[in-house]
Amino acid sequence: MNDLADSIVALYRRHAGAWSTARLDGAQGSRLMEAGWLARFRALLPPGADVLDIGCGPGVPIARHLVEHGHPVTGIDSAPEMIALFRRNLAAWQAPTAETIAAQAVVAEAIVADMRSLALGRRFGGLIAWDSFFHLAREPQRRLFPVFAAHAAPGAPLLFTTGPAEGDAIGTLEGEPLYHASLDPAEYRARLDAAGFDLVAHQAEDPECGGHTVWLAQRRG
C-alpha cells in the first residue's frame, strides 16, 4: 500500500490531461455536484476572503466556482502539470463582473508544493482539500491537521473529503491503481478539535454529492 500511496503524484503527472478533461466534462452539466457543500463553505467566508485550494488539480470546477463568487484562490498541487492546467483554465475563463475580475487577477497564484510539507507563511480566509487529502496514507493525514491550522485565519472554514470509514481503497485512473485512505470518523473529529477547528457539518457518502464523504469545519477564533 505504501508504494501505491507514494505513486500518487507521478500518476497524476502522467494523466493530468485526461483527469482535467474528465473534470471539465463533469462540470458542464446543469447542476454542479459540489454546489451544496460549496455554498455552505462560502456562507462561512467573509466577503472577498481568499481561499487556499490544497491539491487544486486543474482548477475546475472548485477554484473557478469560488472565483465566480468573488473569492481569490491560491492553488497548490504537487504535480506541475496540474498547476499549468490550473493557470490555463482560470486564465481562459472570462470574469463576468468587476468583483470577479478582481478575484481572477489573484487566482493566477498557483504553486507547485507538497501539501505534507506546506509552509506558505500566511493565513487564508478559507481552506479546501476536495478529493486530494484522501490520497495520503493515514499517518501523513494525521500530520496534516497542524498544516491546516497554520494556514487558517481565525474563523476560516475548512472543507475536505475522506472515505466513510478507516481503511484503504484502490480506485483507478486511466487503468492504473489509484490509492485512497481514511481514518476513523471519530479520529477525524478528535484531530479537528485538537487543531483548533469546530465541526460544522459532516455527511458520510452524501447521495446529493456523488457519494462523497464530506467534512466542513471552522477555525476557532
Describe the 3D structure.
The chain is α/β, with parallel strands linked by helices and 221 residues long. The protein has one domain: Vaccinia Virus protein VP39 (Rossmann fold). It is built from 9 helices and 9 strands. The chain has helices spanning 2-6, 8-14, 16-26, 35-43, 62-68, 80-92, 98-107, 138-151, 185-194, and strands spanning 51-54, 73-77, 110-112, 126-129, 157-162, 167-173, 176-182, 197-206, 212-219. A 7-stranded mixed sheet has the order 3-2-1-4-5-9-8, with helices on both faces. It is globular and about 40 Å long. It starts with a helix and ends with a strand. The model has no long low-confidence stretch (mean pLDDT 90).
In terms of topology, how is this protein built?
Layout: H1 2-6, H2 8-14, H3 16-26, H4 35-43, E1 51-54, H5 62-68, E2 73-77, H6 80-92, H7 98-107, E3 110-112, E4 126-129, H8 138-151, E5 157-162, E6 167-173, E7 176-182, H9 185-194, E8 197-206, E9 212-219
Parallel strand pairs: 1-2, 1-4, 2-3, 4-5
Antiparallel strand pairs: 5-9, 6-7, 8-9
GO molecular function, one term: methyltransferase activity
InterPro entries: SAM-dependent_MTases_sf (IPR029063)
Pfam families: Methyltransf_23 (PF13489)
